[in-house]
Amino acid sequence: MNDTVNDFKVTDRKTFIKFLDLLRKDFLDNPEKWENKTLPDFLEALSAYTEDVQGYYDNMKLDIKADKPDWSTFADIFKGAKIYE
Question: Domain DUF7660, which positions (predicted)?
Answer without folding.
Answer: 13-85
